[in-house]
Structures are given as C-alpha cells and as structure tokens.
Amino acid sequence: MTTRRDHVKPPQARLAGCRNCGRKNRLPAVAATFPRCGRCHRPLPWIVDADDDTFTEIAETAAIPVLVDIWAPWCVHRRRLNPALEKLACDLADQVKVDNVNVDETPRLQARFSVDAVPTLMLLRGRRIVAYQAGAPPEPSLRAWLNRALAEA
Fold first, then answer.
1. What confidence tier does 153 reach under pLDDT thresholds 50, 70, 90?
2. For residue 54, what are the domain limits?
3. Gap between the Cα atoms of 51 and 122, Å rounded
C-alpha cells in the first residue's frame, strides 16, 4: 500500500556562486546551519524553493530565521522584489534563509497563511510568524523591515 508520503519529492539542492571566490557550491534545501563556500568558507546566500509538501522541512525546522517570499509568476511586482531579496540574501547570508513559495502551486500554504495578496513576505522562526509584509516595498524599506524583524526573532 502506498501513502501520500511515498510520492513526495525530497527538497532539491541548488547551485550558487560564491561572491568572494566565484566557486559554484551546491546549496542544500535543509541543513543544520547556514551553508558556507567549499573553497573560502564564507557564508553563502541561502535561497531555496518550497511547496506544500516540503515547506515544513525547509522553513519550519530551519536553525536560522526564514524569510518566506510568497509570489506568483504572473505578478509584475516580482520583477522589482526578486533582485532586492537576492541582495538581502547575500548581505545577510549567515542570518537568514530565503524560501520562495509559488502561491499558484501551494494551495494548502495559501490557505494556512491566508494569503490574499502577492507578493507576501513573512519572517518565520520555527512555526512562529515574527513579521508579515504584503506588497513589494523598495529595497531600503524592505531592508529596514527585515532588520527590525530579525532583531525581534
């Protein structure tokens, strides 16, 4: 007899280039601490993708706070927000993990977090929502919001 769990794909690793030395590194979706470059050992920006089946493992069990970006491919604000999130992930590589969640592919998460606008940003510490932000603020405002939220986490 097969169960739903038998068909769940494990979280996939991504490749990321180190900003310090340029080496390509495989970033795990799940780890005990933030990833470091295999060559120079500097912290790497930790950006992962999650879905309904992998969200708990990727986001809620992380050892560091997780910035959840709930987005949609059709959202025009995504083009402005994505570079800002990548910059923050690089600047705060040892302090935060960024988890991208496509709202069109995650109906259970959309219902659980009552997402009615995209993009929506949440900072999680375990299962607790530390901060919540709907919309796509400019990078300086986003940085200020995230810094305040990390101080509370």
1. confident
2. 46-152
3. 15
Is residue 41 in some structural domain? no
Q: What is the pLDDT of residue 149?
A: 96
Contact between 20 and 90 (Cβ < 8 Å): no
Domains in the chain, number: 1
CA distances from 31 to 37, 63, 67, 134 (A): 14, 8, 16, 28
What secondary structure letter does DSSP report for 53? T
For residue 1, being part of any structural domain is answered with no
DSSP secondary structure code for residue 9 in this structure: P
User: Global pTM?
Assistant: 0.88
Domain annotation covers residue 120: yes
Asked whether the predicted pLDDT for residue 10 surpasses 70, the reply is no
Cβ atoms of 108 and 115 closer than 8 Å: no
* Beta strand ranges found along the chain (DSSP E): 14-17, 24-27, 46-50, 66-71, 97-102, 120-125, 128-134
Residue 22 in any domain: the answer is no
Residues 52-106 have pLDDT tens digits of 999 999 999 998 999 999 999 999 998 889 999 999 999 999 999 999 999 999 9
Q: Which two tokens stand for residue 52?
A: 């309904």
